[in-house]
Design goal:
alpha+beta; 2 domains; 15 helices; 416 residues; six-stranded mixed beta barrel
């Protein structure tokens, strides 16, 4: 039959026993609650930040592709052949040609600088989800030679236009004339409006048919690049290497991690700093365990002396108090884990309840694009936070346990 070591049994007994000093019990309880609150807060906040990061990433990539292929002069001379080549790669789930240029849109004296994207509606749904973001009209309304344009909702408001109105596109690629270089000007009809939920797109993006873009921006039969969508957006480096071995010719590749590097790097930095700040809560609670265990050692000096006279080694005494401290810390960590996971998985219910209770919304829909608080629980974060709480608790028990092992039986029992 299994017999537990006496250090383990004694550590559990000291944790459960009613102490003569009620203040020690209070400090022990507050340390446990402090660790639980720290773990709960850290899991919940990181889950919310993961949710915001995923929401923003989905909105950005919903309007663009994971990767872009082009040639040295920023033109693709035979995009259809390249299209069929890249589609042979099992990791590539979609591809579409496009043209990206800068221009100006004017309407009744209003002038706005815009990014003009030429697309082929027959291919665009393979790489982007623009159609689901249309609030008026459809991408299929863009017909070649009809010169239709789809505008972001904010851009349309700033120009004062809606579906059916005319706007004038001014392209920087000019035409030589007797009076010099004259910019190319073309009238377009607004056929649709989209709302991506990102200011960058909604206020400065105009979408036209790729054949119209070829004429306005003098591309001839060429396109600017071939956009790719892959199965796993986080495997862009592996897919880039595969395409380098698969394709003949020199192509320049740009992926979503490069296009929005500063944005996602800032989010990651904010997440790390938030982790450090909230980890201080766990650290403070762990240091409370130090003071608790020191007082316990002082309170149990006579018990320690009796154990030493009965043959307990200094190492055994250390184990007793390390176990006692770990029980306190692990109890708090487990409570925090349960609380943090429960909050993270039910944010969509808890936040509306708090908003209803307080009578206001944290993210009003008329101010913020993301009006709901998103949450994404990443289990690796949960285990990392719990492991950190365990490690800090272990470190907090080392000094009091070492102090207990140095108690001299004769001095401790002198006045007993």
């Amino acid at each position: 039959m299994f017999k537990a070591p006496f250090e383990l049994l004694l550590g559990f007994r000291y944790t459960r026993a009613k102490r003569r000093n009620g203040f020690i019990s209070f400090i022990t309880f507050s340390s446990m609650i402090g660790i639980a609150l720290g773990v709960t807060a850290l899991i919940t906040v990181l889950s919310i930040m993961n949710g915001f990061q995923q929401e923003l990433r989905d909105r950005i990539l919903g309007m663009t592709a994971h990767m872009t292929l082009t040639e040295s002069d920023q033109r693709l001379h035979d995009w259809s052949t390249l299209y069929h080549e890249v589609k042979k790669n099992p990791e590539v789930v979609g591809a579409a040609p496009n043209i990206m240029e800068q221009g100006m849109l004017t309407r009744s004296g209003e002038v706005k600088g815009v990014a003009v994207r030429g697309i082929d509606p027959a291919y665009e749904n393979e790489v982007a989800d623009i159609e689901s973001k249309m609030v008026r009209g459809s991408l299929n309304d863009l017909k070649p030679k009809e010169y239709g344009v789809v505008l972001g909702s904010e851009l349309a408001v700033s120009l004062g236009v809606s579906v059916g109105d005319k706007v004038t596109l001014i392209a920087p690629q000019g035409t030589f004339s007797p009076v010099g270089m004259v910019p190319r000007i073309k009238r377009f009809t607004v056929t649709g409006l989209f709302e991506a939920g990102m200011h960058e797109y909604d206020s400065a993006l105009a979408i036209i048919h790729i054949e119209d873009a070829q004429k306005v921006f003098k591309y001839g039969n060429e396109v600017g690049a071939l956009q790719l969508k892959i199965k796993d957006m986080f495997e862009v480096f592996d897919v880039r290497h595969q395409l380098g071995e698969q394709l003949n010719g020199i192509y320049y590749v740009r992926d979503w991690t490069q296009q929005h590097a500063n944005f996602f790097r800032a989010i990651d930095m904010e997440k790390r700093m938030m982790f450090i700040v909230l980890a201080l809560i766990i650290m403070v609670a762990a240091f409370n365990i130090v003071s608790t265990m020191v007082m316990v050692v002082t309170d149990k000096q006579s018990d320690i002396a009796v154990l030493r006279t009965l043959g307990a080694t200094p190492m055994s005494i250390q184990y007793v108090f390390i176990i006692q401290g770990l029980i306190i810390g692990l109890s708090g960590a487990v409570l925090g884990l349960i609380g943090g996971v429960s909050l993270a998985l039910n944010i969509d219910v808890i936040i509306p309840f708090i908003e209803h209770l307080l009578g206001f919304k944290f993210f009003p829909a008329d101010v913020y694009y993301i009006s709901q608080v998103p949450s994404k629980l990443v289990w690796s974060d949960v285990w990392y936070i719990t492991g950190l709480a365990f490690l800090l608790t272990l470190l907090a028990t080392l000094y009091p346990a070492w102090k207990a092992s140095k108690v001299h039986p004769a001095e401790a029992l002198r006045y007993e």
